[in-house]
């Protein structure tokens, strides 16, 4: 993803050797529309899909689908703006910007790069917290479903999630010792496969339950509440949940950097974005609408927690979530690890605690290179995300906060501002007003979603 160490590795150079290397790298690129579509869909479909039915339940049969379509349009516009910013000045011969942060640095300057990096790292950290909550919920569901299956519907099978969060945290402390992304490709592949498995199982279970009910539940206005203010807060929170499920802006340029040319990469990326967003939106609408149709006013925050039978399939889906999030946690944590460890190495080059590696030989396994700073920092990082998740174990509210925080800056503001610089659009021109108005509307949506989600966390904590 777009992190500072990637920025440093792609600094521009005027030397002929750098140009030669760049041309060779470009020549070797083999990505097509369909490989880009695959990358986008694999990146977008994840834990956020589990909350879409709940979001639709808050917004109702009209508001829910329309809101998802609106987010899809915003995402497509953002991807188009970013794809035009891949090459500086010229879409064919311009110097490529292979990462999100690199593009921000080139078009907006170093100060904005630091702000962009900070937002990305906050999002990575927050996503780790959300993944701890989600995985613990899934592990608890496996225990609950098996309990009801063995003891009957009247059995007392409700348990908390703290123990399961601790279990997940211990697993992540171990997996966090994987040195970097280059050593965890297998984990990412497994995570992507698991995300597709539980998403399609959730869709199938929703369709099956609608058929069993022989009716479509839900209403135009969504789930009723005791007061109008409570309804408003829940609608705002639903916006944050949907926002969390959509954005992939921070990896658009990384994916575009894999595409071959001709045709120009921005044309290929726009086609890939249109195709992948259409596929994803259709899938999201099916999953959310069938989930709402199946449960109506009782739609759960995590759609898979609403099913008990067939217990083996529900168990498998929840196990897929846990396996996905074990890898997903690392996908979002490794950039943070890399940034902090690189900073520490540069700041304290002579410090043995930071730079000394110890070879530890384990039976059967290859030798392990142990670094004390890495061990301590990564362990404390996992402990901190687990502790915060235990303090605020609220799935929908946490997703809403994260969706609101990252949606406007990375999906709308930076792409719009970079595009304005790229195209040299004059202030107060018609196009400038349209772009800035678009950005302002999305900012308002993000603020409302953030406020609603924070209110939800406070209300849940006090309750």
Can you walk me through this structure?
The protein is built from 16 helices and 2 strands. It is mainly α. The protein has a single domain, classed as Up-down Bundle (Amino acid/polyamine transporter I), CATH 1.20.1740. The chain has a two-stranded antiparallel sheet. A hairpin with a 7-residue loop joins strand 1 and strand 2. Helix 4 packs across helix 9 and helix 5 packs antiparallel against helix 6. The N terminus is likely disordered. This is Amino acid permease 7. Keywords: Amino-acid transport, Membrane, Transmembrane, Transmembrane helix, Transport. One of its GO terms (cellular component) is membrane. It is found in: Membrane.
Task: Describe what is shown at a glance.
It is built from 16 helices and 2 strands. With about 475 residues, it is mainly alpha-helical. This is Amino acid permease 7.
Largest sheet: 2 strands, antiparallel
DSSP summary: helix tally: 16
Biggest sheet strand order reads: 1-2
State the helical fraction. Answer: over 70%
Question: What is the rounded distance between the termini?
Answer: 38 Å
What sequence of helices (H) and strands (E) makes up the elements?
A: HHHHHHHHHHHHHEEHHH
How many domains would you count in the coordinates?
A: 1
Cα-atom Rg, whole angstroms? 23 Å
- Could you say what the CATH topology is called? Amino acid/polyamine transporter I
- CATH architecture, please? Up-down Bundle
Q: What percent of residues are in strands?
A: under 5%
Number of β-strand runs: 2
What's the multimeric state? single chain
Q: Specify the CATH class.
A: Mainly Alpha
Whole-number average pLDDT? 85
């Amino acid at each position: 993803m777009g992190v500072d160490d990637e920025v440093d590795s792609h600094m521009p150079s005027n030397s002929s050797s750098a140009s030669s290397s760049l041309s060779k790298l470009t020549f070797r690129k083999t990505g097509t529309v369909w490989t880009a579509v695959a990358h986008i869909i694999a990146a977008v479909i994840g834990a956020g899909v589990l909350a879409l039915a709940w979001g639709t339940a808050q917004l109702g049969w009209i508001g829910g689908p329309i809101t998802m379509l609106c987010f899809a349009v915003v995402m497509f516009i953002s991807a188009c703006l970013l794809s035009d910013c891949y090459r500086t000045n010229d879409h064919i011969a311009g110097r490529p910007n292979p990462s999100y942060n690199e593009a921000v640095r080139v078009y907006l300057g170093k100060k904005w790069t630091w702000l962009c990096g900070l937002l990305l790292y906050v999002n990575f950290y927050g996503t780790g917290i959300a993944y701890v909550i989600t995985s613990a919920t899934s592990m608890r569901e496996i225990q609950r479903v098996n309990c009801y299956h063995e003891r009957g519907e009247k059995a007392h099978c409700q348990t908390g999630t703290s123990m399961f969060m601790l279990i997940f945290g211990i697993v992540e402390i171990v997996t966090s010792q994987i040195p970097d992304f280059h050593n965890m490709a297998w984990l990412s592949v497994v995570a992507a496969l698991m995300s597709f498995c539980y998403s399609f199982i959730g869709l199938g279970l929703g369709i099956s339950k609608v058929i069993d009910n022989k009716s479509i539940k839900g209403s135009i206005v969504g789930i009723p509440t005791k007061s109008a203010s409570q309804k408003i807060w829940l609608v705002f929170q639903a916006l944050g949940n949907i926002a969390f499920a959509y954005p992939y802006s921070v990896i658009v340029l990384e994916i575009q950097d894999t595409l071959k040319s001709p045709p120009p990469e921005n044309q290929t990326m726009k086609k890939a974005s249109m195709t992948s967003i259409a596929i994803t939106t259709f899938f999201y609408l099916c999953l959310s609408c069938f989930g709402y149709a199946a449960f109506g006013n009782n739609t759960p925050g995590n759609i898979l927690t609403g099913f008990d039978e067939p217990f083996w399939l529900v168990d498998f889906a929840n196990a897929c979530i846990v396996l996905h999030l074990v890898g997903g946690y690392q996908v979002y944590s490794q950039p943070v690890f890399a940034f902090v460890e690189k900073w520490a190495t540069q700041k304290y080059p002579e410090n043995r605690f930071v730079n000394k590696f110890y070879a530890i030989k384990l039976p059967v396994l290859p030798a392990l290179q142990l670094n004390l700073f890495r061990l301590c920092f990564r362990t404390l990082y996992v402990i901190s995300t687990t502790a915060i998740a235990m303090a605020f174990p609220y799935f929908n509210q946490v997703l809403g906060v994260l969706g609101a925080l990252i949606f406007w800056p990375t999906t709308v503001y930076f792409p719009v501002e970079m595009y304005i610089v790229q195209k040299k659009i004059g202030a107060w021109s018609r196009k400038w007003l349209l772009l800035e108005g678009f950005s302002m509307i999305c900012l308002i949506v993000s603020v409302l979603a953030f406020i609603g989600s924070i209110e939800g966390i406070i209300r849940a904590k006090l309750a």
